[in-house]
Amino acid sequence: MPLRLYNTLSRSQELFSPIQGENGPVTFYSCGPTVYDYAHIGNFRSFLNADILRKTLELIGYEVEHVMNITDVGHMTEDDTADGGGEDKMELASKRLLEDKKSGRIPEGSEIDPADPRAIAEYYAEAFLEDGRTLGLQVAVEAERFPERLPRPTAYIRGMIELIERLIDSDHAYVAGDGVVYFDVSSFPEYGALSGNTVDGLRSGEGGRVLESNQANKRSPADFMLWKPDPKHLMRWDSPWGEGYPGWHLECSVMAEELLGRDGEIDIHSGGEDNIFPHHECEIAQSRCATGSSAFARYWFHTRHLVVEGEKMSKSKGNFFTVRDILAKGVTPGALRLELVRTHYRQNANFTMQGLKDCARMVDRWCRLRDQLASGSVSESGMKAPLAAALERFKECLCDDLNLARAIGVLNEASALARVNEEGGVCDPELAASELEALTRMDHVLGVLDRNEQVVSGDGDDLSDRVEVLIDARAKAKVEKDWGAADAIRDELAALGIAIKDGPEGTTWSRNVE
């Protein structure tokens, strides 16, 4: 089934055609997290949309080689400038954690060493992988099997130096008077094609800020940094231009070429829309000039921003959430994953608590249907095989530029038509097996059916123990007909944000999503 995908570079939908043809693997590179802190739900919206694209490709028959970098050096705080101004985010994290340790927010003996940026990166990289596995991010799920597909830039410094040398030798880069190595944007006439920025506009400061402090040493304000000598920088390496550190944009060019490149070209490159300029624009320039290829990536896939309850995420507003923050509210990973991806990737998504509840109900329905089909409890009445019939329409929706909202609608319609035998008897086990296979194939993309249990970790374990003690005490009070005590315990649980439900098999509980 042909896939039509919006290409940021051409600003239009295009028929997907991989470099190696229908039988060759699709080469797919995604910009991943910078591991100086926990990734937030906006970051994960971009990562999960890339995952949806990968799994759509697999659903329609492609093999996919998917690489996602884990940035552990060089990403600066002012990353909307081509040079990358401000501080290295890993150095910023070290300062933040040192302050936390002094104030007692990090106890002595903590597993994070605030003075060691590599230890900080490793800690947050593992946290990202754990969150990714929890949400079904396939590159994270496969991390042990394919560790090379989650590369760290610090392992590719030699490759970055070699790429800079190639650019200098071919007159696409130069060493400025202050010793900084810059890419010469004037040597690449197509610079700006991805973002729509022009070199003239960048010279005047339009379309992306430039760093005034560096202008005296550059040939053009639009030129961007490749290497900066800085013997005092926290993370630094030897190079032909002095001890220092690489520009942020280098890492993806080097790792994509080494791990995926076919004559300097890959099929798909993804990231958030904030990566378009300067990061991806600079990647294209340095990669094409270094390899001589007519393209770096054939298709550019960008996810738009996430807002929370209609407002930009902000710690000061109290609406800045990590994956762990949301799961601690009693949300299942399946509901969170669905809420993050169900809005089309080229639209801004409004993340809401009501949306999480709606997604939780949908996932619950699909899971009940899955379990009933697994038991063979399917009725012969109604439409013979609604899920199997829906599978092709589900694919068609995804092949229309990943229209996941329509695909979810198709699944919901088919689920409503599925006639499950309420008596629990086996009416047509072959039909049940066929329907289950169709549902499972659709869930290969959605990735929610096996993620419908609450995840509790860290401090949540203590709360779980307390809740269980209170539930046991309430059960005892009810046996003793001490209704006042039972009601008081229910009120105490409610104050903790816990909802309880009494049933024939006992009392179950969940965290309220409010």
What does this structure look like?
The chain has 514 residues and is of the alpha/beta class. 42% of the residues lie in helices and 14% in strands. It is built from 16 helices and 17 strands. It has helices at residues 41-59, 89-103, 117-134, 138-141, 157-169, 199-203, 250-259, 276-291, 323-327, 333-341, 353-374, 386-399, 404-417, 429-446, 460-479, 483-495; strands at 4-7, 12-15, 26-30, 64-68, 76-78, 85-88, 173-175, 181-183, 224-229, 244-246, 266-272, 297-303, 306-308, 311-312, 349-351, 498-503, 506-511. The chain has a 4-stranded parallel sheet, sandwiched between helices. A 4-stranded antiparallel sheet has the order 7-8-9-10, covered by helices on one side. A hairpin with a 6-residue loop joins β5 and β6 (85-88). α12 (386-399) packs antiparallel against α13 (404-417), α12 (386-399) packs parallel to α14 (429-446) and α15 packs antiparallel against α16 (483-495). The longest helix is centred in the last third of the chain and has 22 residues, at 353-374. The relative contact order is 0.12.
Descriptive labels:
4-stranded antiparallel beta sheet, 16 helices, 17 strands, 514 residues
What does this entry show, briefly?
The protein is an alpha/beta fold and 514 residues long. 42% of the residues lie in helices and 14% in strands. It has helices at 41-59, 89-103, 117-134, 138-141, 157-169, 199-203, 250-259, 276-291, 323-327, 333-341, 353-374, 386-399, 404-417, 429-446, 460-479, 483-495; strands at residues 4-7, 12-15, 26-30, 64-68, 76-78, 85-88, 173-175, 181-183, 224-229, 244-246, 266-272, 297-303, 306-308, 311-312, 349-351, 498-503, 506-511.
